[in-house]
Design brief:
With 344 residues, the protein is an alpha/beta fold. It has 12 helices and 14 strands. It has 2 domains: 185 residues, Isopropylmalate Dehydrogenase (3-Layer(aba) Sandwich); 123 residues, Isopropylmalate Dehydrogenase (3-Layer(aba) Sandwich), CATH 3.40.718. Helix 9 links the parallel strand 8 and strand 9.
């Protein structure tokens, strides 16, 4: 049997439903897993029209009704969108609330062993907050739902894998949170995640926070006081860790094969190299020609992958959204599920 991957529909006003429809039109997705959309059947029916793909919707209330056949999209229909009130590309509290409910249902199924992993389409933080959910994003919502305290974000684009010590916060605040204990936790989570991806002896690079990794304390002492002690402790635990390494070279070395992952200190330090590797922009035609990359939440008791982009309200409803990242997220979830579960 193949792993069942629960695909949450994301914000119904964005490109999530469209890229799911396009991804599930590909036989290569069904070759590696049984995809199950957790969302709204009416929205997915509309998404088929937007995406211009010839598929059918199988609206179900129970997993036993799923067909798992290429050409038919199984939708666990929560029926929580009033389609007549939905406006594409606009922040909508109804869509924000529904997006949270899809994730809640997916986590329930994953925790109870009904599905093997979750792949999420993008949500809109403003819509979610308008609906009364004060989470910074998917990661924090998933951590709350699973009762997880130690977690981190891993981004993957081709051979480049990057985890983050801090993510969605002001840069001043992020610098204050670069502490030995947190850096060590992320190194350990990275080690475990790489092993779950089939890398037996992961090689982990740890980026410095300051320019030239502090230049011996001239540009800051976080490397001396916090990062070096964390790396040394990781090595004592048997983890192959190197650093701190200057952030202006470490990602190039990792892409070249020197390391299996890089631990970045803050959001943009890690996101910029990954998006340079996974995204391509065509200025002449004003469009993205490549939208690759996968976001994995590591440290959770369940497997969760996601696209590495947002709801793209400017593209919503036009049929031009690129499903590449969605396809990669589903495949990554399937690969991790096969490593974790003895599916026969």
């Amino acid at each position: 049997m193949k792993p069942i991957i629960g695909i949450t529909m994301g914000d119904a006003s964005g490109i999530g439903p469209e890229i799911i429809a396009k991804a599930l039109s590909l036989k290569e997705v069904y070759d590696v897993c049984h995809p199950l959309v957790i969302g709204d059947a009416n929205v997915m029916t509309k998404a088929l029209e937007i995406a211009r793909v010839q598929l059918k919707i199988n609206s179900i209330k129970d997993l036993r009704e799923a067909k798992f056949e290429c050409g038919v999209i199984d939708v666990l229909d929560l029926g929580n969108i009033k389609i007549e009130k939905l406006k594409m590309g606009q922040v909508n509290a109804m869509a924000g609330k529904a997006a949270v409910e899809y994730v809640e249902k997916a986590v329930e199924l994953a925790v109870n062993g009904k599905i093997h992993a979750i792949a999420t389409a993008p949500i809109n933080k403003e819509a979610m907050n308008q609906a009364g959910f004060g989470y910074a994003g998917h990661t924090e919502l998933l951590a709350h739902l699973t009762g997880t305290k130690d977690y981190a974000m891993m981004l993957i684009a081709g051979p480049l894998r990057v985890t983050h010590v801090t993510t969605h916060m002001a840069l001043r605040e992020a610098c204050n949170l670069i502490k030995k204990e947190r850096v060590l936790k992320v190194i350990r989570l990275t080690h475990q995640a790489l092993q779950s991806l089939g890398i037996k002896e992961p090689r982990i690079a740890v980026a410095g926070l300051n320019p030239h990794r502090g230049e011996g304390g001239l540009f800051g002492t976080e490397e001396i006081d916090e990062i070096v002690p964390a790396v040394e402790l990781a090595r004592k635990m048997g983890i192959i860790a190197d650093g701190p390494i200057s952030a202006d070279t470490v990602f190039v070395r990792a892409r070249g094969g020197a390391f299996d992952a890089v631990v970045a200190m803050y959001h943009d330090q890690g996101h910029i190299p990954v998006k340079l590797a996974g995204l391509e922009w065509d200025e002449r035609n004003k469009k993205w020609t490549a939208v690759g990359g996968v976001n994995i939440t590591i440290g959770l008791p369940i497997i969760r992958t996601s696209v590495d982009h947002g709801t793209a309200f400017g593209k919503a409803g036009k049929g031009t959204a690129n499903p590449q990242s969605m396809v990669e997220a589903i495949k990554a979830a399937a690969k991790m599920a096969k490593m974790k579960f003895p599916i026969k």
